[in-house]
Amino acid sequence: MSFAIIGTGSALPKTIQTNEDLAQFLDTSHDWIVSRTGIEARHICVAESILDIALEASVNALENAQIKPAELDLIICPTLGGDTVTPSLACLIQEQLGATCPSFDLNAACSGFVYGLDVADAYFARNNDMKILVIAVDAMSKLVDWQDRATAVLFGDGAGAAVLGSGNSLKAIQLTAVGNQHALSIPWPKGNHPLTQNQSNPAPYLLMDGPEVYRFAVAAICSDLRSVVKAAGIELSDLDYIIPHQANLRIIEGAAKRLKLPMDKFVLRVNGCGNTSAASIPLVLDELNRSKTFKPGTRIALTAFGGGLTTGACVIEWT
Amino acid sequence: MVLEKVVEILRNYKDEQDLEVTMASTFEELELDSLDTVELVMEIEEAFDTSIEMDGELQTIGDVVTLIEKAIA
């Protein structure tokens, strides 16, 4: 036994910034961004807190699952961080929902949702009769340098959630991590201890070696998908949908070509949201669930990669 | 031999079969940005079934050819 996804939810901030909007204050253009990333617009938290969108996605997921917050046994919140260092975002979601269960954040960057599913799977192995909320949320707009045209255009904010209950949907799951600070990092803000004031600290904004991340990402999608379908006892061609982390269209195209898979196997939503980090996969999952795209028996692979460097992939059979 | 294969891959990547390429051609001259360069290097690596380091020192087609020749020697 593993678990079944019994409900999904998502939320995006109301403010949308198009590429043309970014070109007002960055030396960039719509055509340049689209040709290199596939991204046309992204949602940015302006009026909303990170908790606001996390809560909206959680409430939607609980309604979709037709369960009450009090029935939850655990809340896992994959995120780079919420509005506060402490309390954790998971605890604030718990408070606002009116749930009473243990709650914690999990930082695996863009691979966070798959990491969260893997942790949840271990809880189900201990006690199969549980309800777990995995709510992935990131507000990358607060973490990127809006004067750096090479990275700022890539990201957006969002939240995506899944409620897990008893079942046998998860056919295989695997995680990897290879510590690497050079490829992608976001330094902490400098503290104000008097003895550290003369030290030079990097600005607390995202730093990324784009080509290195591109190579890592394409290789990760290819190797993770090959091995996770093998672990599930199926072939790549048996998959109905592949939901990759929505970082960059060119990464997904590069992986599809190497796997010799048609692009229509991959669900692509990078155009409207940019890279929403941990939220990108559950945002897509919720959209397809609500449009009733999935039928009992539909085989879905999730494949994620991100800072750490981390990767995660799984095969789910919808029930 | 390595250069000929690299030029063939490059011409296919840019979809320009009469593109003039020499060892001294820079990625900049060929209008290849960092994303194009990494995609191209990955295709070249696959063609030669090897891998090379990309540490920002790659400026010319000759740089890639030299690293590939070392890797497969």
Automatic annotation (TrEMBL), chain B:
A Pfam match is: PP-binding
Statement: the UniProt record of this protein carries the keyword Iron: no
Protein name per Swiss-Prot or TrEMBL:
Acyl carrier protein
Recorded hits in InterPro entries, A to Z, give:
ACP, ACP-like_sf, PP-bd_ACP
Carrier domain: which residues? 1-73
Organism domain of life:
Bacteria
Write down the SUPFAM superfamilies for this protein, in alphabetical order.
Answer: ACP-like
Question: Which keywords does UniProt give here?
Answer: Fatty acid biosynthesis, Fatty acid metabolism, Lipid biosynthesis, Lipid metabolism, Phosphopantetheine, Phosphoprotein
